[in-house]
Amino acid sequence: MDLALTALFAWAVSGRRLLRVRRVPAWKSATVGVEGADSYTAFGYANPTRRVLAGVLHTQAELREVMMEENGRDDGAGPPDPADPGWEEAAAHLRYASDVMEVVETYFYRPALGVFMAVVTAAKRLQSGRLDAYLLYMLIALIAVIAVVTALA
Amino acid sequence: MSAALPIPVIQLLQVLTVALGAPGVTGVIARVEARLQGRRGPRVLQPYYDLAKLFRKEALAPEQASWFFLAAPLIAVTCYLTIPLLTSYGLPPGYMGDILGGGFLLSLASFVVATAALETGSPYAQLGSSQAKTFSAITEPVVLFVVFTVALLTGTDLPYALAATVRSSAGQIIRPAHLLAAAALFMVILHETGRIPVETHTGTNEFGMIEEARAFEHSGPYFALLKWGSELKQLILFTILANVFLAPWGLASTQRAGAVGLAIVALLAKACAVGCVVAVIDNSFAKLRLFKITEFVSGAFLLAVLGVFTLYLGGG
Predict the structure, then answer these.
(1) Does residue B30 carry a pLDDT above 90?
(2) Does the distance separating the beta carbons of B74 and A7 come in below 8 Å?
(3) Concatenated DSSP letters for B213-255?
(4) Do the beta carbons of residue B191 and residue B131 sit within 8 Å?
(5) What is the ipTM of this complex?
């Protein structure tokens, strides 16, 4: 409703110009021939945040030499091998990598995992698959219930 | 004696005050800034002429952009015009929505504009969008903490409850929690309105732009709406600062036409006064490096957190 009012106002002051939109290429540079990707990647968009919150996220960034792939793009081909002939030209390519540390995972889930696995191991030992062991658990449970009921009565 | 105005008329007046006053406030700031620099400066009415000119220009859009690119300016302006309805600025009744509601609408508008900038395929608009969102990640918690301070001071999160508390005694004005929250809010406002030390709003270097760069690919009526939206946001934020925190005097307490008229004049005068302070800051400090802005907004965050702590530790 409000949106319709705003649209109506914009239409009233600008008339047909509002709806007659001409499509043009997005402005990248005044120089002809500047090519580049058409949009930020999700990684690139969030990179300033990763840098700004480095204290909280424990951001680690590194710049290293990698081999150029055939198609001219960096596909993560790994570090150059000096044994290859002509590796210096092929390695004239840098790769920027940045990663954050998952604080909750490092300081909460990983320590908790050890305790949790110990509990799982103990529980596994109980579930041996032997029928007489299960009957024994049921007997223990029955005695425990009777003991509790007797104590409460 | 003047007659009492019906509430729908008052609500409409609030929206009209903000809608029509906002470019004027921008004009006053530009004029004051120019005078401080020894220039004659543009006319106070220049922003209105700019908007009128842009509304008459042809609209262009990047080839790949979807309908959202064109809808975003309309949605943003609608958000900004809804806030005066929610939290009445100086005019009764101001109890329909709270500060948090206004904050949500401001965030929605900023999100919509940032998303539209991402749609363009222009590296500069996307750069501005990315940078704006980076620093919003810190300023939005500041606004939340300011709201917490208000809530602890008054027991509500209604802006007018705080205004009434501040008016109630002189002691309330110098309460540390109140002063810290007001200072934090002022720093957020400098960031949100794209002023020094965060951004040179008249600058031409794309890499230093945050607010301004997002609208790069919009043109004609759509650019006019975005520009008008920034001016609306500026007036809304100045009003929150002046009418709720710093000088909650001159608000209308009755629905009489005289009181309402006085409140409108007081509102615009106070916004211009805040604008003059902002212009002086603009002329006295240098712009911070991009990654130094973090320290500025973190400083605001620290002040807001300190405000909440002083209340709990008994000092506020």
Answers:
(1) yes
(2) yes
(3) GGGTT--HHHHHHHHHHHHHHHHHHHHIIIIIII---S---S-
(4) no
(5) 0.77
